[in-house]
Amino acid sequence: MAKSKGNAVVGQSGGPTCVINQSLVGVVEEFVARRTGGRILGMRHGVAGLVKGNLIDLTRVSRKTLDLVAATPSSALGSSRDKPNRDYCQQIFEVCRKNDIRWYFYIGGNDSADSARIVSEVARDASYDLRVFHIPKTIDNDLRENDHTPGFGSAARWVACAFMGDDLDNRSLPGVKINVVMGRNAGFLTAASILARTSKDAGPHLVYVPEADFDEARFVADVQKSLARIGRCQVAVSEGIHRKGEQPLAAMLDANAPVDSHGNKLLTGGALGAHLVNLVKAAAPKARVRADTFGYLQRCFPGVVSETDAREARQVGRLAARAALAGKPSGSVAIRRVSDKPYRVAYELVDLSKVARDTRHLPPKFINRAANDINDSFLAYVAPLAGKLPTVGLLG
Fold first, then answer.
1. Are 93 and 20 in the same domain?
2. 28 and 60 share a domain?
3. pLDDT tens, 350-379?
4. How far apart (Å, rounded) are the C-alpha atoms in residues 254 and 240?
């Protein structure tokens, strides 16, 4: 049992997921089990709450409540989109020193890892013993050093189920259906739509990801080919698709879109879907054409949690707390895949700078650029993360 003096703090950052609370509870349960004294405090709305001293004592929360919270989607502590610079991190550090915080846990994506890195550096410069640990989370699945990230598996499952249901609708009333999926820079979540191909001629029939340049004329031609072949077409499109050398098409189409704290235009509006619908209607005026933008529904929808995702999210939280109390240096917990059959992973603590800021992309080996599609090899990667999907029955 660790006997070091001091308290710990844990927070959640960025977009919520189905399993981010599993990671939160993993940290709390491991800290409480291994500590003799000291408290673990929760940041209300991430670093934005921390700098205001808005903290909750999680040490006093019952195990029954923690288990219920763990199984509940979204961020139980609330989240923050703040992007701390060094001055902001100095404020974070001062609150940590005031509350005798010696262990700092932050659950989030690459920007969260970067702020954790800066907090660690500020504490080091002040000769203050503060161990800082980043815990991975993002439905975009774009963290470096990770095979995949908690939150992605459940979101992939939701996308697959949505495409399955939408494909059945499209079979009943044939036409062109375009679904815009989250993913500004990485196409993992859009690629997961191919899990819905559970029968012959099932959609999506075309898949477009940010890693491949988008050509509108070719898109229209591809849709027309699908209409000629099977009388309908279901399309999966990443919100971040772009023409060669240009910014995301969705950002160009919506001049009034709000800008986030990182300077990016929000892409969750319906401008992209409407644009693609108009392109198809102009070329195929008799076709029934519709578009949906999935938006925030993908992040924390109840009832679609992947068991693998939940288990791994809990484990990265536990391992972060275990590493911290064992005296390990600051770092980020990374998930490594050991094998596909059977599916097995290992965990590693990596340097914060290796995960911070930059994003990773869908590997080229999974992208079929010639057909504007995703290769079947991607299924071996994503299937164990999403879990078992519903079975579809068809006549003829």
1. yes
2. yes
3. 999 999 988 999 999 999 999 999 999 999
4. 13
pTM above 0.90, yes or no: yes
pLDDT reading at 3 higher than 60: no
In a domain, 85, yes or no: yes
- Tell me the pairing of strands 373-374 and 367-368: antiparallel
Which domain range does residue 235 map to? 152-298+361-386
* Element at 8 (helix H, strand E): strand 7-12
Tokens encoding 251: 């950002």
Q: Which residues of 150-175 are buried (b: 16+ CB within 10 A; e: fewer)?
A: bbbbbbbbbbbbbbbebbeebbeeeb
Quote the distance between the C-alpha of residue 111 and its chain's center. 13
Please tell me the total count of domains within the chain.
Answer: 2
- Looking at the chain, how many residues does it have? 396
- Measured distance CA(234)–CA(217) in Å, rounded: 17
CA distance 5 to 209: 49
Mind spelling out the 3-state secondary structure of 76-129? CCCCCCCCCCHHHHHHHHHHHHHCCEEEEEEEECHHHHHHHHHHHHHHHHCCCC
Is the domain of 122 the same as that of 259? no
Q: Are 177 and 166 a contacting pair, CB within 8 Å? A: yes
Q: Give which of 273, 204, 274, 209 is closest to 240, Cα–Cα.
A: 209
Radius of gyration of the chain, Cα coordinates, nearest whole angstrom? 22
CA distance 136 to 307: 17
Looking at the structure, do residues 56 and 133 belong to the same domain, yes or no?
Answer: yes
Task: Answer yes or no: are the C-beta atoms of 148 and 165 closer than 8 Å.
Answer: no
Catalytic residues: 140
Q: What are phi and psi of 76, to 5 degrees?
A: -65, -30
Same domain, yes or no, for 216 and 279?
yes
Bridge partners, 373 (sequence order): 368
